[in-house]
Amino acid sequence: MKKKILAVTLAMAMVSSLVACSGSTTKTQESASASNEESQDSTESKGTLVMATNAEFPPYEYHDGSDDQIVGIDAEIAAAIADKLGYTLEIEDIAFDSVIPEVTSGKADFGMAGMTVTEERKKSVNFSDSYATAVQVVIVPEDSDITSIDDLSGKIIGVQSGTTGDLYATDDFGDENVERYNKGMEAVQALSQGKIDAVIIDNEPAKVFVQETEGLKILDSAYAEEQYAIAIALDNTELLSEVNAALAELKADGTIDSIVSKYITAD
Ligand code: ARG
Questions:
Q1: What is the CA radius of gyration of the chain?
Q2: What does the alpha-carbon distance between residue 146 and residue 126 come to, in Å, rounded to a whole number?
Q3: Cβ pair 198, 191 in contact under 8 A
Q4: Is there a contact between 196 and 187 (Cβ–Cβ < 8 Å)?
Q5: If we measure between CA atoms, which residue out of 106, 136, 110 comes closest to residue 224?
Q6: Between the chain's N and C termini, which has fewer beta carbons within 10 Å?
Q7: 155-182 b/e with 16+ CB inside 10 Å = b?
Q8: Average pLDDT score over the chain
């Protein structure tokens, strides 16, 4: 069961990287600012880029305890992209389920939320080139009798609603065995209170949540491998190529790596 999923997601990841390479030349809209304002002053040349996210996903996006700032890998990469392109960044914190609708309706310019590239999502948004790899993992109580993915059968699995963890758990173990929460941390709390048997969630948030909670562990066997990318409206191909160009530069000059290593220590 798990092998099939892994193979499918890897195939998807390969397809998406192929798609990312085949730069189709769709005609893009004229930049509105081009005619009236020549960008002399780089700080205010192009206006604001609104990023939709769900800031309940450390270390990618979360509220910094001290002030109410949204920080994390995605927040910093987005800021670096906006900076490079001459936009001011505005971050909007909404439910994870709402991130793609916010982008398709044009209320946000892009969605960045540790969001996995999936074929289903690609029907409603374009994805940028990938900037991170992730794995879905399983969190269980330290003394759990669940030792492998197959042991999840018939157990109650907690997930953050609308995530790939939700989709996999529902597909593989049935809707009746899936408990959905608004935040990943809420699922983890329910697990530590014995209300559910396991949580399926992305590996990096899993590490943070397990560290913050007594008596939980992450299973050694990973569930599925994924690629994170930035979601942009299908018709906004101009922003898509700007973002990809900025991402390529930020990868090449080491900015992405240094942002990641600020938040994730190789252990
Ligand atoms: N990678 C998973 C997905 O795309 C989970 C993302 C959850 N992100 C968040 N900011 N809460 O479905």
A1: 19
A2: 38
A3: yes
A4: yes
A5: 136
A6: C
A7: bbbbbbbbbbbbbbbbebbeeebbbbbe
A8: 86
166 C-alpha to center of ligand 1: Å? 10
**Quick check: 188 and 213 in contact, CB under 8 A?**
yes
CA dihedral 189, 177, 113, 111 (to 10 degrees): -140
pLDDT in tens, 10-56: 333 333 333 333 333 222 223 333 333 333 444 456 899 999 999 99
Which ligand 1 atom minimizes the distance to the CA of 163? 12
Q: Is 126 in the pocket of ligand 1 (CB under 6 A)?
A: no
Question: Looking at ligand 1, which atom is closest to the CA of residue 74?
Answer: 10
Using the mean position of ligand 1's atoms as its centre, give its distance from the Cα of residue 38 in Å: 38
pLDDT in tens, 66-119: 778 999 999 999 999 999 999 999 999 999 999 999 999 999 999 999 999 999
Which one of 93, 110, 161, 164 would you pick to mutate in the ligand 1 pocket, going by the greatest count of ligand atoms within 8 A of its CB? 164
Cβ atoms of 87 and 77 closer than 8 Å: no
Q: What is the pTM of this model?
A: 0.84
Rounded Cα distance between 105 and 265, Å, is 37
